[in-house]
ATP-binding cassette subfamily B protein (Catenisphaera adipataccumulans), 585 residues
Amino acid sequence: MRQLFRYYRPKEYFWLLAALVFVFFQVYFNLKLPDYMSEITQLVETEGSRMADIRANGWEMIKCAFAALMMAVISSYIVTKLSATLTYRVRRQLYEHITKFGMAEMNHFSESSLLTRSTNDITQIQLFLSMGMQLMMLAPVTAIWAVTKIWNKSWEWSALTGLAVVILLAVIIILMKFVVPKFKIIQKLTDALNQNTRENLIGLRVIRAFNAEAYQEKKFEHSNEDVTNVQMFTQKALATLQPIMYLVMYFLTLGIYLIGANLIQSAMMADKLSLFGDMVVFSSYALQIIFAFLMLAAVFMMMPRAQVSAARIKEVIDMPLSIQEDDFDGETDEKGTVEFKNVTFRYPGAEEPILKNISFKIKKGQTFAFVGSTGSGKSTLIQLIPRFYDVTEGQVLVDGVDVRSYRQNALYDKIGYVFQKSMLFNGTIRENIAIGEKPCSDEQIQRALKIAQADDFVARKSGLDTPVAQRGANFSGGQKQRLAIARAVAKDPEIYVFDDSFSALDYQTDAALRRALKENCSSATVLIVAQRIGTVLNADQIVVLEQGECVGIGTHKELMETCDVYREIALSQLSKEELEHASHA
Ligand SMILES: Nc1ncnc2c1ncn2[C@@H]1O[C@H](COP(=O)(O)OP(=O)(O)OP(=O)(O)O)[C@@H](O)[C@H]1O
């Protein structure tokens, strides 16, 4: 929690100090009220008092109460503003750090946990700062001031007040012992609940199609019940605090009046009136002290929850980045080359390597295709080029330079990566295609759409201004793929990486798209991961992967003669005649 305060700038500490001064005056006015009460009581009890005096004291009381209210409003305003500023900055830093996360960090936390941490956990902190900071100032000032006011009155009254405070503290400590450990559990369970809700919403159509509502609902109910049970426990425990507090307060008032009655009875006639006034004042101050301790208790109740949240946020902010960028700006003599040198790769935490000792070099303008059975490591291999993961052994070089030496942006500038699952963002087609830092004119976008065979269906909709729903929900799978390809083309990169990006296209569109790419982007290097032999057989070189090992590199013709795995894949898709024909074409 303490570390959160480093997000404040020096001038904001001044505002904190100002809030403290306002709180100080608020307490001053609050604690002046019983003095006037005592004055009024004495005037009422004294024979021959003037009504005007009583009214004047009453008027002073109103002014004091109003002044205390004003001070409270101003200090709340300052504290609320300061807490909102701090949480804004924490949220921004959290977001900026998360955007630099590699896949390893994303897998470590999971998306839903990062979402909970960026929203719910930050709200906990904001709640604590806005309410807690105020109470933290108000409580000690009130308690200390009120104690000094009653210090020199009867010791019996003071002892009784002390006893009430001790009882309250004991109750609070016992409650905290039970409740605080549950806060950590609540945040963890909220993570799980969010994950469940998110999964259910994203997979709603699958759930319906498979009549799996009952099953998913049961899973959801389970998470929901877990959170509810723990929350019920904490709420029930905390709910006992209020009645106990009132009980202690009533007994304290009763005790003060009982002691007061005895004192008045045994006092001289002349002292009786002033003792009565003291009793009224004392009971007011004693209640203020009890309230102050309750406020502190509220702070201590809120603090552990906020501490848990702060620790969860800190865990993300302090997470070292597995991908540390270097400072090479990407200016190279060699252009458009990709080289793998004895690359071995193991996923973080996995025992077995997924890629074993892979080596090849792609020259500028060449097309390399990667084939192999599912799970053979094709996607993993190409993910090493933009450094989504770092190699375990060996080197990946782009334009002759190790990818680890690049500034991330400089490396990304060279690569147009089209993912296996096309990702479109809420907005328009124009915004989705001209998404990068480089400015992109409408002509460039239209050209990219044409190459990606997407111009027809975009024109049939509302052109570049066609709205795109979240995740591109208003487009078909093939349309989404074409838009994702157009996004890469508009970037005009040196190197294209297509991770099974033609799978949702029909054969005709697939062929037309590859032809258009060849005609318009002939100088670009292309890497294609594909399942269809038809997509890869015209590639300059085909790399065949089998369980993470490279079992063949060559042209379609060469591999048909030399590589059993390739021949098997090819023959499972096309007949001998078709393959013969394709090889000669
Ligand atoms: N994030 C990950 N963490 C751990 N293992 C992973 C991860 N992603 C993939 N794998 C494993 O790595 C292996 C290779 O997966 P990869 O996605 O590279 O295969 P692929 O050849 O592209 O398959 P497909 O053709 O089905 O897309 C698989 O066994 C998979 O289980």
In short: The longest strand covers residues 338-345.
